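Deviations from the work plan: none for this task. Representative record:
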Amino acid sequence: MEIIAEYGTVFLIMACMFGFFMAWGIGANDVANAMGTSVGSRALTIKQAIFIAMIFEFLGAYLAGGEVTSTIRKGIIDADVMADDPQLMVYGMMSALLAAGTWLLVASMKGWPVSTTHSIVGAIVGFAAVGISAESVHWDKVGSIVASWVVSPVLAGTISFGLFMSVKWLILDTDDPFNRAKKYIPIYMWMVGFMISMVTLLKGLKHVGLDLDLGLGSKFANALPVSAVIGLLVAGLGALLLRNISDDEDHENRFGSVERVFAVLMVFTACAMAFAHGSNDVANAVGPLAAIASTVQSGGEIAAKSAMPWWILLVGAAGIVVGLATYGWRVITTVGRKITELTPSRGFAAELGAAATVVLASATGLPISTTHTLVGAVLGVGFARGIAALNLRVVGTIFMSWIITLPAGAGLAILFFFIFKAMFGA
Amino acid sequence: MANGSPLGNLFGRSPIGPIQQHMQVATEAAEHLPELLAATADQDWDRAKEIHKAIADDEKTADKLKSDVRRHLPKSLFLPVPRSDLLQLVSIQDQVANTAKDFASTVMGRDLRFPEKLFPAVLELTNTSVACCQQALKAIQELDELLEVGFTGREVKRVEAMLKELDKLERRTDKQQFSLRRKLFKMEPDLPPVDVMFYYRAMALLGELADASEKVGDRLQILLAK
């Protein structure tokens, strides 16, 4: 307790720095994968992509990021074990942030594929299992998190497969794909609006302090009609945007106009993707920070059920925006340049499939890798015979990155943990 | 930094564009043949030489494109159609270019001039053979549209109709070739025997050109059949 009282402010400042560092890394690297698909298929310019990313990453983090933040903050480790030594929790979470941030920086400079989620989960499990005790880790929760890393790409792939098949039946393989596209694409836009507002209503509004009650019994029943209406508004806006697109009757490239209609849809799915990414990945930086802040502010009471202070989210959001502005735009451009084979009709299916999966995971509080989910979604479109050439070696590198990232994050976190312990005393 | 992006590395280079380009060049080689015949009929051997060179250049370009396609189709690539079908398609397309060049070389090798009585029919056969190549190219150019719809449905039917047209053209070359043989057979006593040998050889190559185009179509059809 004395340590917290003595160094409380120092801890908070350090934690903010490390949290910002981690968020910077997410903005610099991770967002590129979420936005790269839209840039690569030329549905968005780089400036538009960054603009969308900044707004919807923030909204996602703020409105739907609570569950994952709380998993990272108190779901992986058992805080009660540390009730007598709250400083250990502070050291551990600081070292987790620093370890994951450092690992991300090193790996991305070396060009290794890493996942922010895997780094932070590895780091937290590492410091808790080695620095504190093996019992302090909720292994069953860790197990379900790891399982979700396998399930999420598969689920995203299945959804994208289905979405692309529906596009084939409803739009592409018809006599008049252009007009069918204009007719049916608002339905997909409706799905985007419905999905995001469902998650926001179910998981987000309590953070903002709003409560919606139509008197329909359960929260879910309340959210359903509201989301449906919001979806309709989104679809209406989309239909308005679609009106200006006309068929250029190009016989050389018969699907050119159709793809331009899908490009409008991709603006919507890009928003969904950024929202989904914000709702899941911002927690990687914000979760440990929240754990530290609540421990310090309550004077050492770890289990205190204090609400997450608003400024913590601001640190995370600011870190991501700065990361995007300083480095992320360059990575988005490079990733986008490699994805030119993806046309909007496929890009949307991949993005919507991935976004739906990630948002679902966010609502359940499961930290998953947005990038790996998106890779699964793209493969799903590929299995529907939608993409000219996919490099399956990537699946191997993803497995490799799991095998390397988890111990690397854990090892670094253990190292930092003992350094902090030596610096500030146990 | 983006080296590490699994998403960036996920996308391989599409083989479809290069395959279409390869067929385009092979067809261009064949399209020179009527000009070549016209030049020989006029005994304009300088012009004929130029055309021969243009055909040889096209054939060389086609070879380069062919190995380019092969190099970019590693086994780890996941494609919407079997990789082996694509590789065989390119090999067969390459035969179009090769046969066109063989014909040109056969003509140029011994300053071959068809007898005036035979010439119109030879030109007609050449034109039909070239039309076969062009029809095959037309079908190959649908590959990107096929990809757009995921190799199913209406687009497949569209291409199948094109291939039917190709078959019809190829059958026409068979008939033309046969009647040409009969004509030449009747003229044989009045012509130098070695020339006759080469007339037959050149006519056979024109038939082979049409056959090669038809095989391109066959391969495409196999690729489309599930």
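The beta strands of chain A are 390-391.
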